[in-house]
Amino acid sequence: MFRVRERFTLAEDFLAKFKGRQPDWGPLGYVTYKRTYARVLPEENGRTEEYWETVRRVVEGCYTIQLNHCRGLKLPWSMSKAQRSAQEMYRLIWEFRFLPPGRGLWMMGTDYIYERGSAALNNCAFVSTEEIPVSFSEPFCFLMDLSLLGVGVAFDTKGAGKLTIHEPEIADTTFVVEDSKEGWCDLVRCILESYVGECQRPKRVDYSQIRPMGAPIKSFGGIAPGSDPLIECIANIDKVLQPRIGQAVSSTDLTDLMNVIGKCVVSGGVRRTAELALGSPTDTEYLTLKDPQEHAEKLKAWRWASNNSVSAGIGMDYAGVGEQTAKNGEPGYFWLQNARAFGRLKDGETWDDAKVAGTNPCAEQSLESYEVCNLVETFPSRHATFDEYQRTLKFAYLYAKTVTLIPTHNERTNAIMLRNRRIGLSQSGIIESFDRHGRRTHFDWCDRGYKYICDLDRIYAQWLCIPESVKKTSVKPSGTVSLLPGTTPGIHYPHSQYYMRTIRIDKTSPLVEPIRRAGYRVEESVYGDNTWVVYFPVEHAAFNRSKNDVSIWEQVENIAQMQYYWADNQVSATVTFRPEEAKDIPRILELYETRLKSISFLPLLDHNYPQAPYQEVPGEAYLQAVAKLQPLSFTTLNTNEAEDVFCDSDKCEILAPPAHFPEPQEFDFVFDEAKTSDESSEVGAPK
After folding, report:
1. What is d(CA 48, CA 635) in angstroms, rounded to the nearest whole number?
2. 121, 406 contact by CB (below 8 A)
3. What is the reported pTM?
4. What is the pLDDT at residue 632?
5. How many CB atoms lie within 10 A of CB 627?
6. What is the pLDDT of the chain when averaged over all its residues?
7. Residues 622, 557: Cα–Cα separation, whole Å
8. Contact at 8 Å (CB) between 426 and 570?
9. Does the annotation count 169 as an active-site position?
């Protein structure tokens, strides 16, 4: 897939400065890292990486890709300059000045990427159903294929009405499912195509080759879920399509099929996926898909698996959909026309990205159908001056651009990715930066930083002999990645000054006992989902205001300003609102429709359900909890439970629902990764 002629390695005397050390973790940083990103080291009795080793793998992988790209095209490369550049990237990641996405921390530098392509390095993707008359199964199999790699996938419902469902013709054959993600997708493809008369359905399916639940997945990492999720997936496809025989496929059918596949991927307790549906704001059937009174059974069965949004149009009437959003936060909104016409709003209409068809599950990236996106996260609040931040932007850009040098395993995706080279340099801790630097200074950094990134892209595109990126910046919602340094995620305000942050850990995880010994509160999950719930005390030292103290209007204005000064893709944000502000949502949508590309909302409710992810506590309770804690130590553990993280956001991340389903509005998983003339010289290119 990607020929590696030579591997880049960091100097051992440089790495010796970091061996045995820990970075400046946030309150949940170390346990989040060990649970989610530390890979198993088979050559060392199966222990998992420490952070210095993960950063080494990531940086060496990044520069190995650059090196072999240049060697393959016979382009200039200086190993001494690359060594200096790589060491600086290492330091910036170690100090949490920027971080690759969760996908990058988990997969960059692994043989899997070189052998099977870069799909697993990408956060998210989008696929349209508009072309289902050409191939009914293709959008669904694309979603399944990418989801099995941990990539979040959004989709639209434009294929509604374009095909008629038929009774499958049965063939007296046996379909043997191969023990691979390709094997799973092949079975789903066969079953779906049989419903539109494109193939016969096998009379028997043999699942015996699929490895049992709990077996290790050696190449990708993680643990196998067994065959049961796939068996249930096929049964659920039948439940969706059998009642529809003789009728045209509807937006409900399309959404349900995508949700059924999403449920299949997350089943087993380790894998995760992210889905976003984009429907029409005039499709009343689509808008009521998650109504708990009308569709409680299907909501519990699989409709929890996507965040549902609408493709909004400039000038539309927002009254009906706005009132629905005010109830439970859905639908969200994506303005396709704005995504096509604009980069940064400050730069006016360009139509440089006119082929955009949708967005990713967290809605921070404009995407063509079958396109993928890779993101990288910067932390402006962890910089004292713009010059420091500008230097960080260079290496964050370099990481993201490098990911585009390796093709994926999907030819159609490659045709788009290699042309667009779309990347997303994001920011987290934006509210902390407002507090530290001031709003005006932060937006000035954004404006100057964006222009600097554009200059970099021209230089590096010429050196690497590839196209400039069609778009380069965004604001992702963050979540897991921002937990490592302990910054506020994306553009969101902190929950409160003091709170307990709960995370769920599988009961079989070896992380549990060290956490107990360190003095953290550990409870059995009340939902019977075979997990422990761990409480982490969190304080925002530079606390100013919480999400409860900020009006809906100020939050929306923050998004619009970041869309103006920074994001040429989009700003992903969930605007929280108090009950008395709900009436303002239709008016906000109308007033801001020309200044936004995407937005979602969430009512501020008193979440009194057990073990909520965020629980505000008094300062005294926080201090009492912290006083009981001892340092965490996971240095000899083999966790082997790495999770497939994509957008790294509590908003986008869709987990399997608990056995005892809370009310829909309580789904935390539904609502809630120099001088320009001399830039290229530092990664091995000539001046």
Report:
1. 8
2. yes
3. 0.91
4. 87
5. 9
6. 90
7. 33
8. no
9. no
Q: What is the DSSP letter of 354?
A: T
Structure tokens at 436: 């530290």
102, 124 Cβ separation under 8 angstroms: no
Which residues, 6+ apart, have CB-to-CB distance to 624 below 8 Å?
Answer: none
Q: Is 364 a catalytic residue?
A: yes
CB atoms within 10 A of CB 587: 13
CA distances from 315 to 291, 586, 590 (A): 27, 12, 7
Q: Which residues contact 100 (CB under 8 A, 6 or more apart)?
A: 58, 93, 108, 376, 377, 399, 673
Per-residue 3-state assignment (H helix, E strand, C coil) for 420-479 = HCCEEEEECCHHHHHHHHCHHHHHHHHHHHHHHHHHHHHHHHHHHCCCCCCCCECECCCC
pLDDT computed for residue 651 by the predictor: 54
Q: pLDDT, tens digit, for every residue of 8-49?
A: 999 999 999 999 999 999 999 999 999 889 999 988 888 899
**Which ranges of the chain have pLDDT less than 50?**
268-270, 642-646, 656-687
Q: Which residues have a Cβ under 8 Å from the Cβ of 240 and sit 6 or more positions away?
A: 253, 256, 257, 260
The answer to whether the beta carbons of residues 121 and 241 sit under 8 Å apart is no
Q: Are 123 and 375 in contact (CB under 8 A)?
A: yes
Give the span between the Cα atoms of 36 and 146, in whole angstroms.
19
Residues in the chain: 687
Please pick, among 264, 362, 446, 647, the residue that the annotation labels catalytic: 362
pLDDT of residue 542: 80
Using CA atoms, how far residue 74 sits from 70, 161, 297, 405, 465, in Å, is 6, 51, 60, 15, 11
| DSSP string computed for 575-619 | EEE-GGGGGGHHHHHHHHTTT-SEEEEEE-----STT-SEEE--H
Kindly report whether the peptide bond that precedes residue 613 is cis, defined as omega within 30 degrees of 0: no
DSSP 236: H
Comparing CA positions, the residue from 79, 68, 82, 75 lying closest to residue 114 is 68
- Catalytic position from the list 49, 138, 193, 364: 364
